[in-house]
Design brief:
This protein is α+β, with helices and mostly antiparallel strands and 749 residues long. It contains 30 helices and 15 strands. A five-stranded antiparallel beta sheet has the order 8-9-15-11-12, with no helix packed on it. The two termini are 41 Å apart.
């Protein structure tokens, strides 16, 4: 890890893309909320698009390593007001050796390969191109790092309920840090693996009790997983029902499909370039050009040749080699993964989207290739173990090795010559430089296999030379991937002293007005997290369609559906716009954070509300639109001091998850709270819970009767309240069961 990532560890290079725009800002805000303010980060009032922070499973707050970051920084740097950028980077990087170690133990314990072979295979998983390409996505790195450990526990759980409980706990913990799609694919793989094992046992023994045991134990693990993850799972379900992800169209669900041409990266890893400076920003091979890194499948020339060799060799030994018992399943599931990953280019993915529950909520079918790569790595270990122990197998399969080496060499030669350029309508004269190292890796792998077949390499030399070739190949793929010197932490600090921002903060310290910053620089525009860093309500994107493209878990109705963009901003409380040239544009009619309305109209549906809002006669300063009738009446006995005093709203306390307001009104009114509507927010008027209504389709409206009232708004999610109890109870019961199981077994042992 140090050889590859020393520039990151020494602050010379940094993670790129989504780490800038999502991971670091989220980790920073969680540090601020939990570490400094000592509250859970339920709600983020500093950007509109990511408001329900703790309900979004992609934010990973509950993952133990993420919580440990906060504790360690507070312990060793108690005066820190912001999370050092190196902390989440190192946390992510530490999962790479964890991934390697998982494959090491899995191959050693369950597939009986030697230590050196298991270690080399582990390196191809932990430091293969897939992991390196995903380094900016902790939500993918973490579940991939834990996958081999979960596979090991799955195999052992087939005969032990204790391992099943342990597997359930680990899967639950994985859910805390994972993109939901990652955990779904992992469960599908482990589930199919278990069903295959049950069928295999039935074929061998024809005993139902022995055959059904694996599926029963896996079911126990799934129940434990659901219980452990309930603290995150239930709020996530609450959120997803209100988002674009509630049901994706097939066009959205298939976004990220892999065309057949992308599979060239199995042989030529940097055919499409590297970050930064991707050589093919848009090609006929894929309209989803920004998914290029998701099409990086390479885990080494020799490693891939040996993986396919293991498939061929184990088929011949399927009745005599114990390691062949999973051979057929691995091959079939790998083919399934490829077919599914192709998405809209094959019908398989659409069948899942249309008929299998949950799949209509997810996009990017290309990510199923993770499982293909994982299976490939395991087969690499087995293939390397075979040639290390049986040099004669190289001679016996010399035609196979000649063909596979020839494929790698030919594809590299054609790629560097520009043969494929007409297919992608691009001329790339510098491509040969990117492909030079993998071309040399193909040459050296071919030379090594040729000499081994000719017995010019002794049996004792095969393993060390193969290890050097595989490790060197991966090293040169990995070490050239990083060229990013753009530091999000520094960028945010630079932005925070911009005069326009300082002026806005000075003018709006207490009124909670919002700022729209129209940025055109790639790493600054969209979700750059400056609002969370400055603790100011800064909006980067106004149009819901843009937010949907970036994050399908954003709320369906986070902006009023009005055509006039100026009026939309004013309704949302945006008082200032900073243009791309840094000039300021003031919106004097922007609604304040709190406002009393005495006239309202009820819209039966959002489409009706849209018609009302687009009506030229409508004026949002005079009338508020609600989704339900507030049922308010005049009070016949209003106190004289209320009648004599002007109506008013006073924000007496403000925090991310709690507001206190004093309202005085002489008439029935609707209190507009200019923040996003979400069902987990509850309002209490004079201590009595009052239903919050949707105002202008996306904001909060609270009915208020005449008089003076104390109003409290607090984030109080029923889903979270139930979830943490289930999680705590499940963990307690699981740990007790494991402890009692050991205690009862020890006397017999």
């Amino acid at each position: 890890m140090l050889l590859v990532y020393w520039p990151v560890l020494f602050g010379q290079e940094f993670f790129w893309e989504d780490f800038f725009t999502h991971e670091y800002p989220i980790r920073e805000f969680c540090f601020y909320s939990a570490g400094i303010k000592h509250v859970l980060p339920f709600w983020n009032p500093y950007t509109w698009g990511w408001a329900t922070l703790l309900a979004d499973p992609q934010n990973g707050f509950w993952y133990p390593a993420n919580m440990l970051q906060i504790a360690l920084v507070r312990l060793f740097a108690p005066s820190a007001v912001h999370l050092p950028i190196l902390v989440p980077e190192v946390t992510t990087l530490l999962h790479l050796p964890l991934a390697s170690l998982g494959v090491f133990y899995l191959l050693k314990k369950e597939f009986h390969v030697t230590d050196t072979v298991a270690l080399v295979a582990g390196l191809t998983w932990g430091f293969g191109a897939r992991m390196i390409a995903e380094q900016n996505h902790a939500v993918f790195i973490i579940p991939l790092a834990l996958l081999p450990w979960e596979t090991l526990l799955t195999i052992r759980s087939w005969s032990s309920w204790k391992y099943a409980v342990g597997l359930g706990i680990l899967l639950g913990v994985t859910f805390f840090a994972s993109h939901p799609e990652a955990i779904l694919f992992i469960i599908i793989f482990l589930g199919a693996f278990t069903v295959w094992e049950s069928a295999r046992r039935m074929h061998l023994h024809a005993r139902w009790n022995l055959s059904l045991a694996p599926m029963l134990y896996l079911s126990l693990a799934i129940v434990v997983m659901i219980g452990v993850s309930a603290i995150q799972l239930l709020p996530s379900q609450e959120l997803s029902l209100l988002t674009y992800r509630q049901h994706l169209s097939y066009a959205d669900a298939s976004f990220g499909s892999i065309p057949i041409g992308y599979f060239v990266t199995l042989f030529v890893p940097k055919f499409f370039g590297e970050n930064p400076g991707f050589l093919v920003p848009s090609t006929p091979l894929s309209n989803d050009s920004w998914w290029w890194w998701e099409g990086t499948f390479y885990w080494g020339v020799l490693a891939e040749i040996l993986a396919l060799f293991a498939v061929v060799r184990l088929w011949k030994r399927r009745t005599s080699d114990r390691r062949a018992r999973y051979h057929t399943f691995f091959v079939l599931f790998a083919l399934f993964a490829v077919a599914y990953a192709m998405g809209s280019y094959l019908p398989l993915h659409e069948l899942f989207w249309r008929y299998v529950p949950l799949f209509e909520h997810f996009r990017a079918p290309n990510r199923m290739m993770w499982i293909f790569l994982f299976i490939g790595v395991l087969l690499t270990g087995i293939g390397l173990d075979i040639i290390a122990k049986e040099q004669g197998s190289l001679r016996h399969y010399r035609r196979y090795f000649a063909v596979t080496c020839g494929v790698f060499l030919l594809l590299h030669l054609l790629s560097m010559s520009g043969f494929f350029d007409p297919l992608i309508e691009k001329t790339r004269p510098g491509l040969w430089v990117l492909l030079l190292h993998s071309s040399l890796a193909s040459v050296f792998a071919s030379l090594f296999l040729f000499l081994s077949i000719k017995s010019k390499v002794s049996a004792r030399q095969i393993l060390p030379i193969a290890t050097i070739l595989i490790v060197a190949d991966l090293y040169f793929v990995d070490v050239t991937w990083y060229s990013n010197t753009f530091n999000q932490e520094t960028l945010i600090r630079q932005d925070s002293v911009i005069a326009s921002l300082l002026d806005f903060r000075a003018a709006h310290q207490t009124d909670h007005a919002k700022l729209l910053w129209l940025q055109d620089e790639p790493m600054r525009k969209q979700r750059s997290g400056l609002g969370m860093f400055l603790r100011s309500p800064i909006e980067y994107i106004l149009e819901p369609g843009d937010m949907r493209d970036l994050n399908p878990l954003c709320l369906n109705d986070f902006a009023p559906p009005i055509k006039n963009s100026i009026e939309k901003m004013e309704i949302m409380g945006i008082s200032t716009v900073i243009n791309k040239d840094m000039s300021e544009h003031l919106l004097p009619n922007a609604l304040p954070f709190l406002r009393l309305y005495y006239e309202w109209q009820v819209a039966a549906s959002d489409s009706e509300a849209k018609q009302m809002l687009d009506d030229p006669a409508f004026h949002f300063g005079q009338m508020i639109y609600l989704d339900q009738d507030p049922i308010l009446q005049n009070s016949p006995e209003l106190p004289q001091n209320i009648i004599a005093t002007a109506d008013s709203t006073i924000l007496t306390s403000y925090s991310e998850n709690n507001l206190s307001i004093v309202v005085r009104t002489s008439r029935p009114a609707i209190l507009l709270v200019n923040d996003l509507y979400y069902p987990a927010w509850k309002a209490f008027v004079d201590g009595k819970e009052t239903k919050i209504l949707r105002a202008f389709t996306s904001l909060r409206g609270i009915p208020v009767s005449p008089g003076q009232h104390e109003i409290e708004l607090r984030y109080d999610s029923n889903a979270f309240n139930m979830g943490w109890k289930i999680t705590l109870g499940t963990l307690a019961l699981s740990l007790l069961a494991l402890f009692m199981g050991r205690k009862q077994k020890s006397p017999a042992g």
